[in-house]
Design brief:
Shape: elongated
CATH topology of the largest domain: TIM Barrel
Strand order of the largest sheet: 1-2-3-4-5-6-7-8
CATH class of the largest domain: Alpha Beta
CATH superfamily of the largest domain: EAL domain
Radius of gyration: 21 Å
Strand content: 15-25%
Number of domains: 2
Structural class: alpha/beta
Length: about 350
Amino acid sequence: MDRFHDKVRQPADMHQRHSSSERNGHSHPESITGQTSEFRQFALQPIVGPNKQPFGSEALFRAGWEDGFSGDPSITSQIMLDNWLLYGFEELSGGGAVFLNCTRETLMSGFLQLLPKSAVFEILESVKPDDELLSVGRSLKAAGYRIALDDFASPETMEEFLDLADFIKVDFGHSGHRERACMLRRLNLTRATLIAEKIESEEEFHEAVEEGFGLFQGYYFGERISFSKKRDALDVIHCTRILEALQEPGFAINEFSELINLESGIECRLIRRANWATPPNVVVNSIRDALEVVGKADVQKVVTLAMKAASEKAAKTRSIPNQWTSMKRHKNTPVRWIDAGATKPWWIHGTSGGSVL
């Protein structure tokens, strides 16, 4: 049998890579999300430099058409992780860093290692450091990932995380100039890049630049893109069969390929995960090659995460009656979205945002 890594192919368009994932549109009565497809909405909020040059973005989950989500943060993180695997954020983020909010449960789950190295894991202010969590953080950094501290308020409360931090976010709206000056004197001794978040005006932006922040985030910079996406329901029987087969000794690639081909959503996730794990000049475009790259443990994680994220009981998101993609943006922020099967991006022009029906 030829090893996959001996098959170095020319890079292909992302949608050509995953076209096989769109072909098996099966419909089954016993799906995790019921008889109808579900919608997921999320947004990418820009993070920019002192000249407003793009650096990255933060992935934000949306429930319905509201501007926020008030549900369980761990559920939100699971949904965003699965969205990232299913859709990929590379086209949406322009290849920049993508920050993902992480609870303790998310950090300890083992799912984060499924993501590409462009991911930045943002430790929420509610997470308390302990030896187990710090060990996980060091392992993530050793694997090439970066870590951010969210809503940093006091060095005393998050002191143990400082050695892990590549980025430290300071809530600009909830701290005064003197308070920030004291905090920044301490934080400037670290190697982390300081991010002024919740910037809501030109005045606040200039003030943050003068205070020495390196990156900036907030509604003043708008949202790069906000959209909803229709997802085919996962078949609980197929997913359970895959998980049961993984409990058996060995890892028969051909048999697993046939089983996973029955569930196109899982196929798509695994192919995307495999492409993240291989060098840029190596393109994975079959489930058999993907299985050889990712291995048995990652297959189990991908299927388990997909089932968790798709669970109606867990997600508790409001259904959207029409299938459409909505985009809105700040007047200076370009947006684009490549739909499944599209050959080129859809662009929105003008200064007031818009939508694609």
